[in-house]
Design goal:
3 domains; 14 helices; 18% strand
């Protein structure tokens, strides 16, 4: 999981190039981005993680730590080096029932397994992958586990079952956190087997791709995606694309055929979009604003909207925190917890705004005090 992202580059400095599980998943999103990650980590790490991305990583780590409690006899392999591989093999030889983060390397494939469980009765293993999501992502999770199982079989292990552990969105906390009810353990063995062969082929292609000494030519595949889905090395991989481009047009990522036509014709600048490209009203307004270099104001629509308003008017801004692991009674995974608000009240067109605010400052459940404070206004 997240741990691979922090140690792999250092590991690769002292060993031949390996394709990790994490890099394989990244390869499926953007091959060129992974090439930069391995060969030009200076470029790959140029863009700092956003607070949102950091939050996702922290959440993933938190969920994994809690999920391990489902297997109280588990032993954690903490190191991420050759010694860790040796330690893993020692425990495998001893038939240790549960291992957390055992590391395997074979034929230039590498993975740390979230949970590897030996089944004494059948003399085989079950693989458990922990996800901080509340559902299964078929485009990612099956391939993730297939990569791991293919590698484990290369290493001589008999794998019988593949499970995905994810948060149960229907769980509502009441009293002490119920670990068993908090998670769903889903048997996806058949789904994983269905993609294992194609994953094996794809991983060999990925390994060949990332092993190239020279940067692969051409655009990265993110050039066919909207701005929010671009990889971290997009600017380096696609120098022809300006900072503000057709990729920034509202919802252009949902118009795949439209974006593809533009890119295939080397149209990257918004002011170069030909007339025959049909845009939505919102998209066309954005393009017109850019070309005319001025804000377009529709006073009639604004007035019509204002005419529907009745006093008093409330201008409310509030903040919430979506905890993956419910902290308080009555909350489910990722249930939004309100903890702060700012509201301005305009009682009439002639009056001045009245300002009120609230901030919960201790570690207790803020929802009741939040609601009681807001009701006063």
């Amino acid at each position: 999981m997240v741990t691979e992202l922090t140690w792999l580059n250092e590991t690769l400095k002292t060993m031949a190039i390996n394709l990790s599980k994490t890099d394989y998943i990244l390869y499926r999103e953007c091959p060129k981005n992974v090439w930069y990650k391995i060969h030009r980590p200076d470029i790959y790490s140029e863009s700092e993680l956003s607070e949102f991305e950091k939050s996702i990583m922290e959440t993933g780590n938190e969920v994994e730590l809690v999920a391990r409690k489902l297997f109280p006899s588990g032993i954690l392999i903490e190191r991420r080096d050759t010694k860790a591989q040796e330690t893993t093999q020692d425990y495998i030889a001893k038939k240790q029932e549960v291992l957390f983060q055992p590391i395997f390397v074979k034929d230039s494939h590498l993975a740390a397994i979230d949970i590897l469980k030996f089944e004494p009765e059948t003399k085989d293993y079950s693989v458990y992958e922990i996800k901080s999501t509340s559902s299964i992502d078929e485009k990612v999770h099956y391939h993730d586990l297939a990569f791991q199982i293919n590698l484990l079989r290369k290493c001589g292990l008999k794998i019988n079952k593949a499970y995905l552990i994810h948060l149960n969105s229907e769980y509502v906390r009441s009293g002490k956190l119920d670990i068993v009810q908090l998670f769903k353990i889903v048997d996806i063995s058949k789904k994983v087997e269905n993609v294992s062969e194609s994953v094996a082929t794809e991983t060999e292609e990925a390994l060949k791709y990332i092993s190239q000494d020279e940067e692969p030519s051409g655009f990265c595949c993110c050039v066919y995606k909207g701005r929010s889905r671009h990889c971290s090395t997009f600017q380096h991989a696609n120098p022809e694309v300006p900072d503000y481009s057709v990729h920034d047009i509202a919802r252009i990522g949902n118009s795949k055929a439209k974006l593809k036509e533009l890119i295939d014709n080397n149209i990257f600048h918004i002011d170069k979009i030909p007339a025959h490209i049909k845009l939505t009203d919102i998209q066309q307004s954005q393009v017109d604003t850019y070309i005319l270099n001025k804000v377009l104001v529709n006073k009639e629509k604004i007035k019509a909207e204002f005419d529907t308003l009745t006093f008093p008017l409330y201008f409310l801004d509030y903040e919430t925190f979506p905890a993956a692991i419910p902290r308080f009674d009555g909350f489910s995974p990722y249930h939004q917890i309100p903890f702060q608000y700012s509201v301005d009240v305009l009682k009439s067109p002639e009056s001045k705004p009245e300002h009120y605010e609230f901030l919960h400052v201790d570690s207790s459940d803020p929802s009741k005090s939040f609601a009681e404070s807001l009701q006063k206004h």
